[in-house]
Amino acid sequence: MRAAAKPELAGRIAVITGGGSGLGAALGRLFAREGMAVATLDIDEEAARRAAAALASELGVRATALRVDVGDAESVAAAARHVAATLGGCDVLCANVGVQQFGAIDALSEDDWRWLLEVNVLGTVRTVREFLPLLRARSGWRRIVLTASTSVLAPAVRLGAYQASKFAVMGFGETLREELAPEGIGVTLLFPGGMTTRHLQSSASARPAALGASALRQEDVAAMLAHRPVGEGDMVSPDHAIRNLLADLIADAPYSVTHGSHRTVYEQRRAALDAAHDRMEEP
User: Fold this and answer.
1) Domain 13-281 in CATH 3.90.45.10
2) Is there a contact between 39 and 13 (Cβ–Cβ < 8 Å)?
3) Helix segments in the chain, DSSP class H
4) How does the average pLDDT of the chain come out, rounded?
5) pLDDT band of 199, cuts 50, 70, 90
6) What's the whole-model pTM score?
7) Where are the domains of the chain?
């Protein structure tokens, strides 16, 4: 496949939720290296400010930071107003926030489910809803990145609520891509695997106090790893994980898989679906 011509990215504007650390911070660096202005939005205000300051000082781009709780509709709406006022718009939107909770299906409480769905699913929907007018007000090259997970491609035990939320993000993103295609706004689903980040710690910190402390039982982690052992190359830095993302966005690829040894499981699942279609077509 011929590579798409690279657009002029310098001066364009990227907005990243969960931009204060981990994958979100790496996304900020990815776009800043292209000369793009960056808005780092994060529930951890100090982390957001540190990330934005680093982009401005080290890469010389315009950067702004704001505390944003994607579980709160008004917080997301205020973030869109802030970005419009400080940077002037949005060309790339990364709805990247996601929280995680381990636990067997029958051990997760309704509050656990509500929290993950509120942040991972409705938080993604709110982010797109509030920033879409800014994207539509721009012209030319515009993209939306939605962070799913490779666990959607190869589900593991003890991650039922998290994976269900990421399946929902995938369904939302695939529909959004179809709806926005006539407007020239591309939508790419990002499927990251395991990374050397503080995702579990940041998820625990973001959990509302009213729900009690986030429980991480080693037996759940052990069960998950026994079901889906960590293979060679399954744990990488966030910057390495997204090494191909910019090319995928330029090509308007619907999916971007970062890394991981899950391909065999994915192909088994695909074969089972193909077989179901074959049986359906039998007389």
Assistant:
1) no
2) yes
3) 22-32, 45-59, 73-86, 110-116, 123-137, 160-180, 199-206, 218-227, 238-241, 245-250, 263-281
4) 93
5) low
6) 0.93
7) 13-281
261: amino acid identity, one letter: S
Residue 78 burial (10 A CB sphere; 0-12, 13-18, 19+): middle
237 Cβ partners below 8 Å, 6+ apart? Answer: 26, 195, 196
In total, the chain counts a number of residues equal to: 283
Q: Which of 170, 191, 188, 187 is nearest to 179 (CA)?
A: 187
* DSSP code per residue over 264-275: HHHHHHHHHHHH
pLDDT digits (tens, 9 = 90+) for 149-188: 999 999 999 999 999 999 999 999 999 999 999 999 999 9
255 is catalytic: no
Q: CB of 213 within 8 A of CB of 111? A: no
pLDDT digits (tens, 9 = 90+) for 239-256: 999 999 999 999 999 999
Which of these is catalytic: 141, 162, 172, 191?
162
